[in-house]
Specification:
Layout: H1 5-24, E1 31-38, E2 41-49, E3 54-57, H2 61-73, E4 85-91, E5 94-100, H3 112-123, E6 128-129
Parallel strand pairs: 3-6
Antiparallel strand pairs: 1-2, 1-4, 2-3, 4-5
Helix pairs in contact: 1-2
Length: about 140
């Protein structure tokens, strides 16, 4: 019997969850992964609800690799399309996934508001804490 995409995607989505738990360092509740995929690029954004604020965490190469595998497991043949946006949320020990497709959104048009809208839908107006930029240098002007 041939494997269908769910035989492949189920374990992959579980592996993605395990990697997310490793990234946040423990408790999976309140993890939200927002991913956009375009022409030869992927942009995963990991968020963790800390109660009074949302923390944005850096992704890993392992997470990006798993996301590419999940994206390629989707067929783009026969009218079935690969997703452009994946929203992966962990609540009460379970994950839920929502997709948006190319006919719904053009991710090749840069729009940070898409991510912000997804964050507000889940977390309301909680502030988001972003990691400092590595090796950021700023010139102070008098």
């Amino acid at each position: 019997m041939a494997k269908d995409k769910f035989d492949i995607l189920g374990p992959l989505y579980n592996e993605i969850g395990v990697e997310l738990v490793n990234i946040v360092g423990g408790d999976p509740d309140g993890i939200f992964l927002y991913v956009e995929v375009g022409d030869r690029w992927i942009s995963p954004n990991i968020f963790k609800d800390e109660g009074h604020q949302i923390r944005n965490l850096d992704d890993t190469e392992a997470l990006s690799d798993l996301l590419w595998k999940a994206w390629y497991a989707e067929s783009d043949e026969g009218g079935i399309k690969r997703w452009s946006i994946l929203e992966y949320e962990i609540k009460d020990g379970k994950f839920e996934i929502n997709y948006r497709y190319p006919d719904e959104v053009d991710v090749e048009v840069i729009d940070d508001e898409r991510r912000q809208t997804a964050l507000r839908a889940r977390f309301g107006d909680k502030p988001v804490v972003y990691p400092p930029m590595p090796n950021a240098a700023f010139e102070l002007k008098p």
